[in-house]
Write a structure and sequence with these properties.
Blueprint: H1 9-36, H2 40-91, H3 97-155, H4 162-170, E1 174-176, H5 182-192, E2 203-213, E3 216-246, E4 252-281, E5 289-292, H6 302-325, H7 338-344, H8 352-358, H9 361-372, E6 381-386, E7 389-394, H10 414-440, H11 443-447, H12 465-472, E8 490-499, E9 502-524, E10 530-553, H13 558-566, H14 569-575, E11 584-586, E12 589-594, H15 601-610, H16 613-646, H17 649-663, H18 670-689
Antiparallel strand pairs: 1-2, 2-3, 3-4, 4-7, 5-6, 6-7, 8-9, 9-10, 10-12, 11-12
């Protein structure tokens, strides 16, 4: 796409982008296959052999199952025969006992025959079929393993970054950050009014994806949210009573009654859910505020939609009339496009002029097409605009599979692997694109370029608390949870201090302990009395626990981290601080819980060296130090030459001898050179971590 300034996002996706993305995904996969050297024809032949072998194994399994069923029926028949014999011989002793005796003996014979059949023919049949099934299964397994070995070179090329590369190729106006860095967060908060992470104590960040679209910043955030709901508990009590009645003859008769009394109580309880949001900063219409919620217009046929629009137009007329009669010049004024007004439904807007600037006729038509078509996801999105900050919450994004785990493509079948690769990435891109679609529908947003933002010179932390929370949520839930926690935990991170290029963060887990309780509710019974019905319920008591965690950018891929995690070096390093040996990787950051030791600047350097960060920094430092040393030596020699020219030959000889004696002593400038190298290391790390676009230029 050459420009986002003026186009129809839905039509662009249908007519070009969808097919183009799938084509790019197939070509990307073809290139991986070419690099891996996997023979497609050979793999297809092996897969065909496996399918045939697997079919034989399934047939053998069915025969084995039928043999076992026959054996089970024989066992059941034997049991029934012996039981019938017992009943006939023992229980019946009347005059016709000889007949029962005959049938009893016959049943015993049948039972014995069944046992003989089970222990001989059926046993051999099942054993033979079991061996045949296991042999067929093993043969199929060997062929499948052979196919997996053929695919192994391709699997080795799969990375977590493949999806990102495909997205960037499809949308060249996009940039994607390696992480949400402190400068990008400063921009969102300082310029666009984004609320910081500590403003949401009921949620914890689990996923982040930031970047720019036409130089305007965006941020996808997935949160794990806690809310308090009312849970209904029910209890029962069975009561009994007796009444007496007298019949026409004067006889008194007792009648026994019973009734189940039911009672319920509502009590507060925690509820947890995930929520995915898209934030987008744009300077267009900076004073405009509005919100709209999904109306699912795409799910209605044309007749239903017309009826809905007609009904909505009457409400719009009332709103307009109310604004006129109230004398409020800044009140609601209906647009000429009634269909857009009703379907979009942003009637709570506060600035009519800026709303009209934002929603031009083209923007209105784009939005109506987007809401009424089922080519994307239709009208499943909420749109909130608060000044320069926009927020999109779509239903489809709540099930968006954001983790581009290459394991989902790994298969013994090259064809199946390709299909999984293309399908996942196409759906990933579709979900992402249609979150942006409401924003791309507004030409004013694409034509408004952001003004320069003045960043701070120094930031208190190396990384954001958002990234710290996302990293903390990569650990097992028990890592930070309070020991008495009986529910999920909301993890909140707060910055403590810098440790070189690492940050120490406090991670507080908020959860609940549970205590069983019983309430007694009075219920009127059929016996005319009031009964206290017990209703068991659960009380949720808040608990919390604060731990410490170190996070550091290692500028590597997840594959690098997993490779190091498989070895002993990283595990030994982590166990110095946490006996569990657990660590986590998220957005190029490594997180280490601090339960058994403190993390210092020296540990920061050691961890960096482990991930290969030392080579680049030390190389730069050595180059600078070496260049400075050469320059200093050259200057010194020039000075000595000048002095020698001014002195007598004898004096010059004495000076040269003295210089020779000095050079034999250990140099005292080593500390200075070391300090220079450490300084260069810190500067290199600092520049990388504070890049304006959040990028660390990782491979």
């Amino acid at each position: 796409m050459d420009t986002l300034a003026d186009f129809e996002p839905l039509d662009y996706y249908k007519s070009r982008l969808k097919a183009e993305f799938e084509k790019n995904a197939n070509e990307y996969f073809d290139e991986l296959v070419k690099r891996s050297g996997v023979d497609a024809a050979e793999n297809a032949a092996t897969v065909a052999k496996y399918d045939a072998a697997q079919k034989k194994a399934e047939e053998a399994g069915k025969k084995l199952s039928s043999g076992k069923t026959l054996r089970s029926l024989a066992i059941a028949g034997a049991v029934v025969a012996f039981l019938a014999a017992f009943i006939l011989i023992i229980l019946f002793t009347d005059d016709t006992y000889w007949l029962y005796l005959f049938f009893g003996i016959l049943c015993i014979a049948l039972g014995v025959g069944a046992i003989v059949l089970i222990c001989t023919k059926l046993k051999k049949l099942v054993e033979a079929r079991q061996k045949k099934y296991e042999k067929a299964l093993a043969a199929a397994g060997e062929i499948k393993q052979q196919a997996m070995e053929q695919m192994r070179p391709l699997h080795a090329l799969f990375t977590w970054n493949m999806t990102r590369e495909l997205v960037l190729k499809a949308m060249p106006d996009f940039t994607l950050d390696d992480r949400l860095d402190v400068k990008k967060l400063d921009l969102f908060i300082g310029k666009y009014g984004f609320r910081p992470v500590n403003a949401y104590m009921d949620s914890s960040t689990v996923y982040l994806l930031s970047g720019t679209i036409d130089n305007s910043p965006f941020l996808f955030e997935r949160r794990f949210r806690h809310s308090t709901v009312t849970k209904t508990y029910t209890g029962t009590l069975t009561i009994h009573w007796t009444t007496y009645s007298t019949d026409s003859k004067g006889n008194t008769r007792a009648v026994h009654h019973s009734q189940v009394l039911t009672a319920s109580v509502g009590k507060p309880a925690p509820a947890y859910t995930y929520e995915t949001l898209l934030y987008y900063g744009n300077e267009a219409a900076p004073d405009l505020h509005f919100s709209r919620t999904p109306k699912y217009s795409h799910m209605h046929d044309e007749k239903e939609r017309e009826k809905f629009i007609k009904s909505g137009s009457k409400r719009l007329e009332k709103l307009t009339q109310s604004a006129v009669t109230s004398g409020n010049g800044g009140g609601f004024t209906e647009l000429a496009n009634t269909e857009f007004e009703v379907l979009f439904g942003a009637t709570n807007r506060n600035n009519e002029v800026q709303f009209r600037l934002m929603f031009t006729p083209l923007a209105q038509n784009n939005m109506v097409d987007l809401m009424t078509s089922d080519d994307g996801y239709g009208d499943d999105f909420a749109f909130y605009k608060t000044g320069m900050l926009n927020c999109i919450r779509s239903d489809h994004a709540q099930s968006w599979q954001t983790d581009a785990d290459p394991a989902r493509y790994m298969s013994y079948d090259l064809k199946a692997s390709r299909a999984a690769f293309v399908a996942y990435n196409a759906e990933y891109f579709k979900s992402m694109y249609f979150d942006f679609a409401p924003l791309l529908s507004v030409p004013l947003y694409q034509m408004t370029k952001p003004r320069e933002y003045i960043y701070r010179d120094v930031y208190p932390s190396n990384y954001t608390e958002y990234e710290a929370e996302a990293t903390a949520n990569r650990f097992n839930v028990s890592q930070f949870a309070p020991p008495e926690a009986k529910t999920d935990s909301i993890l909140k991170a707060s910055f403590i201090r810098k440790d070189g290029t690492a940050d120490k963060m406090a991670v507080t887990a908020y959860s609940f302990d549970t205590v069983p309780r019983v309430d007694y509710v009075d219920v009127f019974g059929g016996d005319g009395l009031i009964h206290a019905v017990p209703v068991p319920w659960t009380e949720y008591i808040p608990v919390s626990r604060t731990s410490e965690m170190e996070i550091k950018a290692v500028d590597g891929t997840r594959e690098n981290y997993e490779s190091l995690s498989a070895g002993s070096e990283l595990a030994s390093f982590v166990r110095r601080f946490s006996s569990s040996g657990a660590s986590a990787f998220c957005d190029g950051l490594v997180g280490i819980p601090l339960t058994d030791g403190d993390f210092t600047g020296n540990d920061d350097k050691a961890l960096g060296e482990m991930f290969g960060l030392k080579a680049a920094a030390a190389g730069t430092a050595a180059f600078i130090a070496g260049a400075e040393a050469v320059k200093a030596a050259a200057d010194m020699l020039d000075e000595e030459d000048k002095k020698a020219e001014r002195k007598a030959p004898g004096a010059a000889a004495d000076e040269a001898a003295a210089a020779e004696n000095i050079t034999e002593q250990p140099p005292e400038s080593g500390e200075t050179g070391g300090d220079m190298a450490r300084s260069t290391q810190n500067e290199a790390d600092g520049d990388g971590n504070n890049a304006p676009d959040g990028s660390d230029n990782k491979e």
